[in-house]
Amino acid sequence: MEQITELFGSKVFNDAVMKARLPKETYKQVKKAVDEGERLDIATANVVANAMKDWAVENGATHFTHWFQPMTGITAEKHDSFISPTSEGAIIMEFSGKELVRGEPDASSFPSGGLRATFEARGYTAWDPTSYAFIKDGVLCIPTAFCSYGGEALDKKTPLLRSMQAINKQALRIIRLFGNTTAKSVKTTVGPEQEYFLIPKALYDKRKDLIFTGRTLFGAKAPKGQELEDHYFGAIKPKVQEFMKTLNDELWKLGILAKTEHNEVAPAQHELAPIFTTTNIATDHNQLTMEIMQKVAKKYDMVCLLHEKPFAGVNGSGKHNNWSISTDTGINLLEPGETPYDNAQFLLFLTAVIKAVDEYQDLLRISASSAGNDHRLGANEAPPAVVSMFLGDELTEILEAIEKDGKYVGKEKTLMKVGVHVIPKFPKDTTDRNRTSPFAFTGNKFEFRMVGSSMSIAEANIILNTAVAEELKQFADALEGAKDFTSALHDLIKKTITEHKRIIFNGNGYNDEWIAEAEKRGLLNLKSTPDCLPYFLHEKNVKLFTEHKVLSETEMKARYEIMLENYIKTINIEALTMIDMVNKDILPAISKYISELSETVKIRSEVMPNAVGFEKGRIEKLSALSLSIADKVETLEQLLADKPEGDSLTEAKFVREKIFEQMTLLRADVDSAESITASSVWPYPSYGELLFGVR
Question: What's the burial of 328, exposed, middle or buried (CB within 10 Å: 0-12/13-18/19+)?
Fold first, then answer.
């Protein structure tokens, strides 16, 4: 235990390190900047930079980088060494406050959605003191925001920080109304659960589709999948356990609160869950977690797959975004307490979230949209594409009582009895959990289950923070001027419940009846990325982001274009990969096997003229399939050539409705051919080998 406590945060320039290395006054200024958003002056930055450099060098670092999160969905870094020449021809190790506070990477090759022309290369990275610097691979990494020469956000961190400012401002107004004068800030907190697959690297290297796209574009179903439900929470294989141990060590060094690990539902699928932390830091940590998972897997001759749907026919991977709101004094504002009916502050925050999810369900759906996640949503393995909220019986009954001006009789917690005397009794929760709900209340937080496994959690939390900030603003505006606060509060909660209860659904989200019911309620069912992205620029959404200064209209339009462009390019790469695999490997393999079967038929007919074997029927089936595959590839090639260009939405819809559908048809034929072709001839490792190859 002592070793772990010493290991944890050992590669992080955290609060304890700063307290030990910075002058007392400098430390106070940094703390104020972190806790209250105060700006640091250059003199203070110089002191911090020098202490940071000394600490980093002592821990083996030779370079530093401004570590940022561009719109690619992954992180970016440019390394500079600490060395500076002296007049004597030697070197000294230097790092200034100016270098700490600001960097200047080339912005021309990052996605900008038209915010800047390709020849306008200048961009800036700006130090984010709310997220601790850390050492990774001998490099001091300084978390930063990334913006254009004109000041527009080119990253995911900047709008996330702005959204945190927005909800802090409005939540403080609300808690002041309830007499809280001690809290100086309100922050959202997140604990993102991360699902992933581990497969043998030797097999991965033989699959062009996995290498180029992150998912299998072809693959016949294995004899065994997840039908027996024996992998979920099952004994972890020794090799995977070794991977998890090393992963934990590496994450703990970086101060990442890795807590829970287990086998997930599908074969070769696993999950890691961290403890909650501030949303900005949780986002940084999740990006690091994904990167380190992939690095550590290679040390054990495995590959970590983060795609939402790497294998057809078994569950895909998501990322459950557990979101809550807390004061700097440690009060969770979504904690119901023992008597939630009497907890007016909790009920007001709860109804603010309900209203936000109802009014901005389109934005929440957009935050989980991608070509990869389209395979997963609504497939009875993840939430449906319809956004709804699960509150559980107790909270739902409380809200119904408020709406009807009735009295709620609280339920007493009963003891669980399992019929075995030796097992101690324990209190039974007053409500169950609902894994089919996109947005479920789970005790003192909301679990947004739609986010894809490879996606940054920034977008989901930008939208949650900003939408809830808007509702809290409306509530504060209404209550601050009220003559009778108690009556106004009751009326506001009641009105909000009445107008937005349609978003609450506690039943089975996988049921077809729910989709029909949701349509009757007026809820959106946006099944694919091209279906939902146009909603991003709707007037109410532009107003939301611009009024809270989270995104300008120009920045929104840029992000809209980037999301469409990413979708189009992803499907285009997949289609080209399919064509390459079929033309160079799959059709030749089928032809080879037909030739082998034909030779067998010929030899048998010479030796046993009247014998009837399986080969003739197999030859006929494979010949028909090969002709169909060749025809479908030709059609796919023509569709790619005919793809409209100019308007991104028109192009994205064509990609979805024509190209993706043709890819689906092509896959069906290829998978059928694989199922009746000898494995010795088939050019790629099978699903059975991939899913059960790690032992």
Answer: middle
